[in-house]
Write a structure and sequence with these properties.
elongated, alpha/beta, 379 residues, 14% strand, six-stranded parallel β-sheet, homodimer, 12 strands, DNA-binding
Chain lengths: 379, 379
DNA sequence: AATCAGATTTAGATCGATCTAAGCTACGCA
DNA sequence: TGCGTAGCTTAGATCGATCTAAATCTGATT
C-alpha cells in the first residue's frame, strides 16, 4: 500500500542512510524556478521605516526596549507593506520550530479524533502547530513519519505506536533525541513519558459485569496482538475470569484489525465455532460496532442473544441500536494530558519519565443485556 | 472558547499588524538557552568525508554528477555520524517547505476524517507533509490557522471554510498568494480551485424520494446558514418541492450546528411545532444521527413515524438502527481530487481556476421508511 | 607539450530571521 | 567640562542547507 511510488523531494534524504545505495533515478529537486518571491522581509520593513533589521526584529518580538515612536513607525511600515512573519527563517536561528508531530494510528476512529482535537487545542494555545500523521496501523508509515518529524525538525512528538514488534522502530525512537510522549499505547523497552488509561482495571470491570450477569463463555474480540493496550486489557480479562475460576479459552480470544471491519470478521469467526461464547469484551468501540453488525447480519440480537461490551465510549456508542455498553476512557482528557506532558518535557528535557494513568468507567447500556442465567441458556 | 489565553511564541507576530498596539506583556521569546544542539550538519559530514559542503549536498539530493567513490565515502560518513536532514534549513534556501496546510471544520466528523486520510495519503506520496488545523466551525480559529499557514510558510493550503460571513477572512484569503484549493464548501467572491459535490442534485434527489413516498410536509434540518454547501442543498430541496407544487415553509428549515447535538436540538424544535413535518432531509449524516436520537427519545420510530434522509454516507449510517438513508458523497474521492488539484496548482500557479464536482448518489436504507400515504397519515 | 572537452569539486553568496556585543544619545551629577 | 548611566539602536555573525559560477582534474587529441 505504501509507498505507492517512490516519493520525490528531499523528504527521503534520510533514506540514503539505510538501504543499499541503489541507483535511484536522478532527482533534481524543485526544478521549477523559484517563484519571483515577492515576500516582504524584515529588510524591506527596515528600509521603509528607516531603521535596522535588528530593530524591526525587536518590534516583532515585542521586546519592550524599543522606543514608542520607533515602534509605531515600524508597525506602520509592516501594515503598509503587508509583512508576513517567516517562521522558517526564525526557526533556523532559534533552533525551535514550534511544531509538534502527532502520530496516530487511525484518524477515522472517533477515539483518536477526539484526542487530536484536544491536543491541537492545548498545543495551539501554547503557540505550537501540529503536524498530523496517520499510520493506518502500518509500521512502515510510522517509521517514515517519525523520520519526517525528525527532519523537520519538530520540537516534540506525540505518538501512539502501531505495534511494538519492530525492533528497528524501537531503536529509532529510543535514539531520537526529540522530546516525546506516548499516549494510549506504550512501547516496551522505551522509557518515556506516557499518558493512558488503566486498561487492566477497565477490562476486568467489564468482564466481571458480564460474569455477574451469568455469562460463563466470554470472548475477547479484536485488536492487534502486539499492542500494549490490548495486552493489558487481556490481562484484565483473564484476571476477571480467574477470579471466578473460569479458565481462559484461547479460541475465545480473536485478534483483528482495530476497526469496524475487523470486529465484524472476528465476530463471524467466533459465531462459527462449535461452542460459541455468549458474551464478549471488545478491544474498542469500533470493533464492538463491527461485532454488533455481524450479530445483526446473522439474525441475533445483541443484548438478548449475545452480550457485548466495548471500550472507549465514542459518541456513536450511545446512539447505535442497541446502545453499546462500554468502558469510558475520556479521550479528551488523554489528549490534554499528553500535550501538557510534552510541553513540560520540552521545558525540562532531563526530568525523569512520568506516567499519567486515567481510571476508566463502566457504562452499562443495552448491548450487554440483563441477567443471562434466567434465559433460555443453561445448555 | 478561543483563545483561552494569549498564546505565546512567535506564532502571533502577525497580530501586531491588526489591533491597536496594546501594551502586551513583554515577550522574550524562547528564553530557554538554545540546547547544546548536537545536531550533525552537512559541515560535519563534509569534514569527516574530506569533501566540501557542496559535494555532500549533491550526494544528499542524489544529483548524479558525483563520482561513485566520493558518493560512497560521503554516505558512509552520514551513516556513521547519524546525519539527519534538516528540512527547515533547506526550505529557507529553496523557498519551498513541502508542507501543505489542511484546514477543516470538524475532525470528529467521519466525513472529514476520511477526506483527511485521503489527502494525507496523496500528499505524502508526493513528498509533502500535512499541517492539520481544526477550526471547530469558528471564524476566529480559521483566521488564525490561515495566518499560521502563511507564516510557516506552507507551499499550499487545502481549505474547507467555516462560513462565508467574514469579510475580513474573505479578503485575507483572496490576498494571500499561497496556492490554495477549497473543498466541500466554496467561499463566494473568491475565485479559486474547488472540489465538491453536486449538492443541489443530491438534495433534490433525496427530497424527490421522500415526496415519492407520499410525504408532503418535508423539512430541512441543520447546518449553518452561511455555508455554501447548505445553500446549494436548500436550493435542491426547494427545487424538488417546487417541481411537485409544494410551497417552501420557512418554519420547516431549521439551521443548527452541523453535528449530532445540532441535529438533536433542531429535530426537537421541529417536533414541537403545531403541525410538524413527517419527513426531513438533514444537512449531513451527523445531524441526521442527532435527529434520529431526538426521535427515539420522544418515542417515535424513524422510518415508521418519521422519514429521515442524511447526507454524506459515513460508515455509521449503514450501522445505526434504523439504518440511515442518505446521499453518498465519497469523501475519499473528494480528498484525493483536492490534493491532486493543489499539486497541479503548485506546479502551475497561473492556470485558470478549476472546479471538480462529483455526482452524489441516493442510498435508500431504513430511516426513510416505505410508502407514507398508505399509513395512518392523511390528517 | 599544449589544448580542450568532459567530469568532478568547491568557494562564497544566499534564504530571512535572531543574537551578541558594541555604539550612540542625552541626561544627571560631580 | 567630564563622565557614568540608562535608553535605544545597530553591524555583523549565525542557523544549515542550496545554488551559481568558477576551479580543478582527467585523459584524449593535436
Amino acid at each position: 500500500m505504501f509507498p505507492r511510488s517512490q516519493p520525490a523531494g528531499p523528504s527521503l534524504a534520510s533514506n540514503h542512510l539505510k538501504g543499499p545505495s541503489t541507483e535511484l533515478e536522478p532527482r533534481f529537486p524543485d526544478r521549477s524556478p523559484a517563484p519571483p518571491s515577492e515576500r516582504v522581509t524584515l529588510m524591506d520593513i527596515a528600509a521603509d521605516a528607516g531603521v535596522s533589521r535588528a530593530t524591526v526584529s525587536l518590534v516583532i518580538r515585542n521586546v519592550p526596549i524599543v522606543a514608542g515612536t520607533t515602534r509605531e513607525r515600524v508597525l506602520d511600515s509592516m501594515r503598509r507593506l503587508g509583512y508576513v512573519y517567516h517562521r522558517g527563517a526564525a526557526s533556523l536561528r532559534t533552533q525551535r520550530t514550534h511544531a509538534i508531530g502527532l502520530i496516530v494510528t487511525d484518524i477515522t476512529n472517533p477515539f483518536f479524533a477526539e484526542i487530536i482535537v484536544a491536543i491541537e487545542d492545548r498545543l495551539g494555545n501554547a503557540g505550537y502547530v501540529t503536524l498530523l500523521g496517520n499510520t493506518s496501523e502500518t509500521v512502515a508509515k510510522q517509521e517514515r513519519l517519525l523520520a519526517l518529524m525528525q527532519e523537520y525538525p519538530a520540537d516534540g512528538v506525540l505518538l501512539c505506536p502501531a505495534t511494538d514488534k519492530s525492533d528497528q522502530f524501537t531503536r529509532r525512537i529510543r535514539d531520537c533525541r526529540i522530546p516525546k510522549v506516548f499516549f494510549a499505547r506504550t512501547l516496551p523497552g522505551v522509557e518515556c513519558d506516557y499518558v493512558g488509561i488503566d486498561n487492566l482495571a477497565g477490562a476486568q470491570m467489564a468482564v466481571e459485569h458480564l460474569l455477574g450477569l451469568g455469562h460463563r463463555r466470554v470472548a475477547f474480540i479484536g485488536g492487534a496482538t502486539e499492542v500494549s493496550s490490548r495486552k493489558e486489557r487481556i490481562k484484565g480479562y483473564a484476571a476477571a475470569l480467574g477470579k471466578n475460576r473460569i479458565g481462559v479459552d484461547d479460541s475465545y480470544i480473536v485478534p483483528s484489525a482495530p476497526d469496524r471491519q475487523g470486529g465484524y470478521h472476528a465476530m463471524n469467526q467466533l459465531l462459527a465455532q462449535p461452542q460459541p461464547p455468549t458474551a464478549a469484551l471488545c478491544f474498542n468501540d469500533m470493533v464492538a460496532l463491527g461485532a454488533l453488525q455481524s450479530l445483526a447480519s446473522t439474525g441475533k440480537r445483541a443484548g438478548d442473544d449475545f452480550a457485548i461490551v466495548g471500550f472507549d465510549d465514542v459518541a456513536e456508542a450511545s446512539l447505535c441500536r442497541p446502545a453499546l455498553s462500554t468502558i469510558a476512557t475520556r479521550p479528551g482528557k488523554i489528549g490534554e494530558a499528553a500535550a501538557e506532558l510534552l510541553l513540560e518535557r520540552i521545558a525540562k528535557p532531563d526530568q525523569i519519565a512520568r506516567k499519567v494513568i486515567f481510571q476508566p468507567e463502566l457504562i452499562v447500556r443495552e448491548s450487554c443485556g440483563h441477567a443471562w442465567s434466567n434465559r433460555k441458556h443453561h445448555s
